[in-house]
Amino acid sequence: MSGINSLAVLEGVWRINRVIAHDDGLRDSFVGQAVFTRSGPRIIHDEDGWLTTGEKGQRLRATRRYVWTNENGRIDVAFGDMRPFHSIPVGVSKPETTYLCPPDRYQVAYDFEDFPSWTMTWRVDGPRKGYEMVSNFSREDA
Fold first, then answer.
1. DSSP per-residue letters across 33-80
2. 50 occurs within a structural domain
3. Mean pLDDT, consecutive 10-residue segments, the chain of 142 residues?
4. 1 domain-assigned
5. Which end of the chain lies in a sparser environment, N or C, as judged by fewer CB atoms within 10 Å?
């Protein structure tokens, strides 16, 4: 696949398996769902699932929301409150970008080559954080 050309291909329910590998050797995991729902020209991306911490094995409910739009040849991803988060080009199979939240740096790499399975890999560095988070998405409503 040559990347995402339309947000419509994301609509529906996705299974998420996520691993968070901290630089200190601890590993957390998240298992849940992502639901992509059309809202006018936007897609609302809601995640809901369970985060299991590596240090104590605690199981915690975890949710998050993002808003995706497709304008001017780019897919813009915003936080749930519409603050800009990051942007990737339309039609690129392995787009990458950076989000700066000083003093922290968030580097993301998407991989749409095996769509409808796809991956989002974040590398996060800052004075009090350092980890890689790999999220694998697969269609649940196929």
1. EEEEEEETTEEEEEEEEEEE-TTT--EEEEEEEEEEEEETTEEEEEET
2. yes
3. 83 98 96 97 97 90 97 94 96 96 97 96 97 97 68
4. no
5. C
